[in-house]
Structures are given as C-alpha cells and as structure tokens.
Amino acid sequence: MKVKMRHVGKYAAALLVAFTVLAPMGWLFLMSVSAASDLTRVPLEWLPRQWDFTRYGKLLSLEPGQPGVLFLHALGNSLLVATGATIICLLLAIPAAFSFSRYRGRDGWLFASLAIYMVPPVAFVLPLYFLLQQFDLLNTRPGLIIVYCSLILPFLTWMLKNQFDTLPQDIEQAARLDGLRVWQVLLRITLPLAKPVLGAAALFGWLLAWDEFFYALLFTSNIAAQTLPVTIAGFTAGRATDDGLIAAVGILASVPPLFIAIWLQKTLVSGLASGGSKG
C-alpha cells in the first residue's frame, strides 16, 4: 500500500509540474487564435468562438507592411547570433575546462571569471559600448556574438570543468604513456566520455544567448541586427496592441528551442544525470 501511494504521489507531482509548464503555453496559444472581441469579452471564455490562424500567416509572410518582415528577420538574427556564440564558446570552453580540471592550482582564474559573471550586466555597458564603437561593431551581429561570448563562456567552462572532474584519469594517463599528446588525449579520450554533458552545455549556452534582451536592446538600433526579444518588445510599444499577435509571436519564438531540446533530449538527460554524480 505504501509503495502504491508513493507511485501515486510521484505521478501527481509529475502532472503538477507538467500542468505548471504547459498551462501558460496553452493559454498563449488560445490567445493567438482568438479574435480581439473574444480576448476582451467579460466574463472571459476559455475557448474562442471562432478559431483564427491568420496571425500566424502574417508572421510567416514577407509581404511589405506585414509584421512577418520584422519577425522573420529578427528570428534569423537570433538563430545566427545564438548559434555562433555557442559554437565559439564551446571551442574555447572545452580546452579551458580541461586545463582547469587536469592542472591543479589554476582554479583562481576560473573563480575570478565566475565572479565577473555574477556582476550585473549594467556594470559592463559603457566599456562594451566603447569597445564595439571603436571597432565599428555596434548594431552588427558579430558585435552581439562577441558580447554574448562574454556571458556564455564562464558558465560553459565551469559546467564542463565539473564534468571533466568526474571522469576517470587512469585512461588518460595510459594514453599518455602510449605516446598521445595532450590535445590528442582530449579529442580521443576525454571528449567521447564527456559527450553527454557537451550537449547539455551547448543547449544551456544557446538558450542564454537566445533569451538575452538587455545587451541586444542597447547595442542594436534597427532590423539589421536586432534579435527576437527586442523585436517582440517592439510589437508591444504601440498604443493599439494586438495581444493575439504578440501571443502568436511568443508561440513561434518557442519553436526553435523546443526542437533543439527534443533533438538533444537524450544527451541533455544523461548529461545532467552524469554531471550531478561524482566518481
């Protein structure tokens, strides 16, 4: 009886978590397919009287005057900036994390970078602005990628370093005795063993860049480099706001992270599980 109650409690907790996560998205979808009159009706009706999917057509259209021109361009900017920053940070974080893990006495550098990571972003606005202005990178996607690397790199280095600490070093030492160089040991031995956490680190780093709003707002000024969070905020700037259109933007903006999470699901789960254990 106690075992059955435990199972019931687990399923109830899982359903509660699922409802907490999915309910806001469900309501956002209902808003996106509801007419403006349904959204302002009192008392509020949960289901729309007439399902309207025209907002999605407008957002996926490149016709002049349609909101899709702004949305699709911002979507492309976000994909390019987030993916570029994540790839660069992974290429830099892997050797840095390996160095911190295998060569003791260098933790001070890692803790210093994490301390800087904890500083509020507003403290770096002026230095970053002057640097980007000096190199003519304001309102450019490469400029945003560089700024996002400063946000993502310390986090990925710390995350990968913790994973490298859990890997057995006997195999690496045996490979070194067989004549492999350090970089060969990293590529042939360590990275295959740490493959699960690489996917998890890539996903978290990508999401950090995808959702970033503050720097994108300050360092971009037009559609040339503006990312999706800034463009979504722009949709709400007018006096006459179509709440259903904003809801449709939110639904479409959640599609790329959803597909990436599904694609990396097995890697993400195993990476988090292995990163949470020691030995």
Description:
The protein has 279 residues and is an all-alpha fold. Helices cover 74% and strands 0% of the residues.
Secondary structure topology:
Elements: H1 2-32, H2 36-39, H3 54-59, H4 68-102, H5 107-118, H6 125-134, H7 141-166, H8 170-177, H9 182-193, H10 195-211, H11 214-219, H12 228-235, H13 243-253, H14 255-263, H15 265-275
Radius of gyration: 23 Å
Helix content: over 70%
Strand content: under 5%
Mean pLDDT across residues: 84
End-to-end CA span: 36 Å
Number of helices: 15
Strand/helix succession: HHHHHHHHHHHHHHH
Q: What is the tally of beta strands?
A: 0
Low-confidence segments, ≥5 residues, pLDDT <50?
275-279
**Main sheet record:** none
Structural class, judged by helices and strands?
mainly alpha
- Backbone shape: globular
List keywords for this structure.
mainly alpha; 74% helix
Quick take:
The chain has helices at residues 2-32, 36-39, 54-59, 68-102, 107-118, 125-134, 141-166, 170-177, 182-193, 195-211, 214-219, 228-235, 243-253, 255-263, 265-275. The protein has 279 residues and is an all-alpha fold. The chain starts with a helix and ends with a helix.
